[in-house]
Amino acid sequence: MDQTHTRAMEALQPFIHLANSNSATSPKFVANLITNATSSPNTYVFAELLETPTVQALRSEDTPPEYQGYLTLLEIFAWGTWQDYQTTPNLPTLNNEQTLKLRLLSLLTLSATIKPLAYQTLMDALSITARSELESLVTTAIYSSLITARLSPATTPPSINVTSVAPLRDVKPQFLTAMVSMLTQWESRCSNVISDIEAEIAKIKADSAKRRAKEHAKTALVEKTLQNWTADGGELNTRSLGSKKGWHGGLRGGSSGFVGNKREFSGDDLDDGYWDNGVDGTFDAQLAASKMDIDQGAGSSIMGSAGPGARHAKRVLGRKS
């Protein structure tokens, strides 16, 4: 609860106790009680005092006419304005303290309903003729923590910039039904927003659970693959790659049937019925010349145009004897 409202409630408590005491037996006593409560400098809320049986008893037809207007006066202090007092007949005359109090309470209502708050508008609503008197009233309201405002007398038109208003006006009973309806609608809108938020949270959680399950399945598959690899001795089986080991560590495959360096082949590996020498075991230069040197390109031979100094092949294929 706002501190200003708390202080106002505390200031009203003595008057509520008097209204509920055994002394409050006459309309005159209740009328004096209302006058003192509305004149006190710290009382700004009066609904609790209005609800007491002794104050409500002033509505009785047996109440003397001179005291019947005090209940209406207290209602104006609770939720009315200065203009309501001016237009309502048969009300008690206000003293100086009550006049200041009602104008301050009216200033609260006007500050909350009129934007911008011009000097002339306030002077007409509060029956004030001098600008200095209005500025004094606004200054009193500021120092009493009723409003937070800044005077702007040099603007055109002169105005008062109110930024906050203390919650010190009581609610008229006729407005309670409308307020309950507005609050019910607001509660319904809040419930719809909360439902939408909860549905979105549930969707996010479901999507997250699906992602975790998918990641867990991938992790399980990787772990199973690693376990199978370890069970096979820690080495990959080349047959699983669709190839076989060939001679000298090469792999069969490719367009030529082997993958590897041509220097890794030997005549023994390619056992096609030839040896390095001729059929009789002697070196056959003509036979050797007809074979391609494995280390040289096509068209070269052991006995080339370079003569006897030319480099001989490492091995020449010949037919086995």
Automatic annotation (TrEMBL):
It holds the Pfam family PCI. The keyword Flavoprotein does not apply. Residues 1-165 form the PCI domain. It comes from the Eukaryota. The keyword Transport does not apply. Residues 299-321 are annotated as: Disordered. GO terms for cellular component: COP9 signalosome. Keywords: Signalosome. InterPro entries: COPS7/eIF3m, PCI_dom. Residues 311-321 have a biased composition (Basic residues). PROSITE patterns: PCI. SMART domains: PINT. Belongs to the CSN7/EIF3M family. CSN7 subfamily. This is PCI domain-containing protein. It comes from Aspergillus coremiiformis.
